[in-house]
Design a protein that fits this description.
The protein is an all-alpha fold. 73% of the residues lie in helices and 0% in strands. α1 packs parallel to α4 and α3 crosses α4.
Length: 67
């Protein structure tokens, strides 16, 4: 059985892979957008919940798909 934590870890890893495949990184995107990397990681992994975390996850996922 796949837990929510496994799904969130997969999300975190897939976002990182998407950025690296474009020659960048999640950390670089965070720096460019004024986002603290620990906040991005917490939002993606689900340890930070709420509307702001959800909005950040949406932004990160969109940025990972672009370019």
């Amino acid at each position: 059985m796949v837990s929510d934590l496994d799904n969130r870890e997969n999300l975190y890893l897939s976002v990182r892979v998407a950025f690296v495949s474009k020659g960048s990184s999640l950390h670089a995107w965070c720096n460019e957008n004024g986002i603290a990397m620990p906040n991005a990681r917490a939002a993606l992994l689900g340890t930070w919940n709420g509307p702001k975390a959800d909005a950040l996850v949406k932004r990160i996922r969109q940025a990972a798909r672009e370019r």
